[in-house]
Design a protein that fits this description.
Oligomer: single chain
Strand content: 15-25%
Number of strands: 11
Largest sheet: 5 strands, antiparallel
Structural class: alpha+beta
Order of helices and strands: HEEEEEEHHEEEHEHHE
Helix content: 25-40%
Distance between the termini: 22 Å
Shape: globular
Strand order of the largest sheet: 8-9-3-10-11
Number of helices: 6
Radius of gyration: 25 Å
């Protein structure tokens, strides 16, 4: 991480908001400042690079506090956790991830990794706005990884050019899948961080996957309709050639749609190195 990016993160950390909680969670917690953003995933039709990374590798702690709920719902998982706010170690190219232009500002983004059951935050009631309640829930249940990403004028996290998606693995793991919509930026990102195995998914294949999924659902619906209709009408007077022809027609259509869906799903999974 560059010196400017690190400075931006430390300036942001100095503005964390202390809040004292009671009830199921008791104690003092530091809330993430309101101007820290979370990333949004690309639209399903947008081409993107996907590369996996471990956010915990090289991360430096900015703040830590041990939390444990008073009411334990899951004894195996919901033990005391030393929840941290980390300065992430991933490096970002000195270019805007949207258009590769020279950046003029940094945006601090947060990637939360939940360490306690989500049921706690759902059951805990607080007298606060929804936005503040969400920040409290993250603070008492998650490790938080912060990154300062450079953007050019009029661009930021809302452009969906950078997104972190958690990859569920072992307990306490911090693996993520990073989605980047600019291919050249993705290449620079992988080079900076010595990351390998990234793949590029173009829009055509992503749309094929979506159409294939819809077709798969329709094919199951057709088969389910045949079975349901047969069970309902089995003892009724609707029989003979009409019922047989209709059943065969729907069944054939269902098989055709199923075949098309499988083809599109397999074809849509095609990708290539970044």
């Amino acid at each position: 991480m560059s010196e400017k990016a690190s400075l931006k993160i430390h300036e942001t950390a100095a503005r964390m908001e202390p809040v004292t909680l009671g009830g199921n969670f008791s104690g003092r917690v530091m809330l993430t400042p309101r101007d820290v953003r979370t990333t949004k995933g690309p639209h399903f039709w947008e081409a993107r690079a996907e590369v996996r990374a471990d956010l915990g590798k090289g991360a430096r702690s900015l703040y830590g506090a041990q939390w444990r709920p008073r009411q334990v719902l899951n004894p195996r998982r919901d033990k005391a956790h030393d929840l941290q706010v980390f300065e992430g170690a991933l490096k970002f190219p000195d270019a805007c991830p949207v258009n590769l232009e020279t950046p003029d500002h940094y945006e601090v983004v947060e990637v939360p990794f939940g360490r306690l059951s989500a049921s706690y935050t759902r059951r805990t009631k607080v007298n606060a706005s929804r936005e503040e309640a969400n920040r409290m829930g993250v603070a008492v249940s998650s490790d938080r990884y912060w990154f300062a990403i450079p953007f050019s004028q009029d661009h930021g996290p809302d452009d969906r050019a950078v997104h972190f998606e958690r990859v569920f693995s072992g307990e306490g793991e911090s693996r993520t899948k990073v989605a980047l919509t600019n291919r050249e930026y993705a290449r620079r990102f992988c080079t900076l961080n010595d990351l390998e195995g990234g793949r590029w998914l173009d829009s055509r294949h992503l749309i094929m996957q979506m159409v294939g999924l819809v077709a798969l659902i329709l094919s199951f619906g057709a088969v389910g309709g045949i079975v349901g209709s047969y069970l309902v009408l089995r003892g009724d007077s609707v029989q003979g050639d009409y019922w047989g022809a209709a059943t065969i027609a729907v069944f054939v259509i269902g098989l055709v749609v199923l075949g098309v869906s499988i083809y599109l799903l397999m074809k849509g999974r095609k990708s290539e190195p970044i």
